[in-house]
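Technical annex, item 7. During the second reporting period the consortium partners agreed on a shared format for inverse folding records so that results from different sites could be compared directly. Each record opens with the tokenized structure and is followed by the designed sequence. A conforming record, contributed by the partner at site C, is shown below for reference.
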């Protein structure tokens, strides 16, 4: 999904090869804003409970240096946000030939982020009310990877997305106090379920929504564009 609203020119495509999701595209300026747009791939559906975990873990690689990667999940909508839904965090994808592990703690996500740039306005550390809540972590319902707020070429290969740094003592409640569920087995199953759900759902829902991100020019403060100076309003 790209940024066609209000004349956006960014573009992207998604494919799967050898069980790896491939996200290709380019983020460019929205002409009238003279500021970078966005591209995203998203999967909707039911996701495994990761409320007893502390991080998301991505296995990925890229051949292009790009500093505007974001990941988001959930549908929480808070006062002060117009078109911004869910929790969002930045992540860095190192350039390399081999698959690498990128870990993003849930404390790095915030529900209060700038819908024009993707940058956090108030972080989870600054205000715990914006940290991911337990209800969302029990079923994220939607998961997205973005190229946003920074111009450049995007090429990202995603092998898996899973939860990590989990507290397995919480699993006792699944068996009425018993510890018969193997933590390792449960972790493996959760990891594969998240990975499978993400890849399949993204494929089904590519270009499934248009984000009303640049609804009115007057709603945005000046931001630096890719090829020009500041916008004027």
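Designed sequence (site C submission):
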């Amino acid at each position: 999904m790209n940024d066609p609203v209000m004349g956006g020119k960014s573009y992207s495509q998604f494919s799967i090869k050898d069980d790896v999701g491939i996200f290709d595209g380019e983020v460019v300026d929205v002409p009238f804003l003279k500021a970078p747009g966005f591209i995203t791939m998203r999967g909707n559906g039911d996701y495994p409970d990761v409320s007893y975990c502390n991080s998301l873990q991505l296995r990925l690689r890229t051949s292009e240096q790009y500093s505007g990667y974001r990941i988001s999940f959930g549908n929480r909508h808070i006062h002060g946000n117009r078109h911004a839904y869910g929790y969002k965090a930045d992540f860095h994808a190192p350039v390399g030939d081999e698959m690498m592990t990128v870990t993003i703690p849930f404390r790095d996500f915030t529900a209060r982020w700038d819908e024009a740039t993707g940058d956090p306005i108030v972080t989870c550390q600054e205000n715990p009310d914006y940290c991911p809540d337990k209800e969302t972590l029990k079923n994220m319902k939607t998961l997205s990877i973005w190229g946003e707020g920074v111009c450049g070429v995007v090429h990202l290969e995603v092998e898996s997305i899973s939860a990590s740094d989990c507290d397995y003592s919480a699993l006792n409640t699944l068996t009425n106090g018993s510890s018969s569920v193997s933590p390792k087995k449960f972790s493996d199953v959760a990891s594969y379920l998240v990975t499978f759900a993400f890849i399949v759902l993204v494929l089904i829902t590519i270009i499934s929504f248009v984000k009303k991100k640049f609804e009115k020019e007057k709603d945005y403060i000046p931001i630096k564009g890719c090829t020009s100076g500041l916008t004027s309003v």
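The two ends are 27 Å apart (CA to CA). Confidence is low (pLDDT under 50) at residues 174-190, 203-222, 228-233. All partners now use this format for quarterly exchanges.
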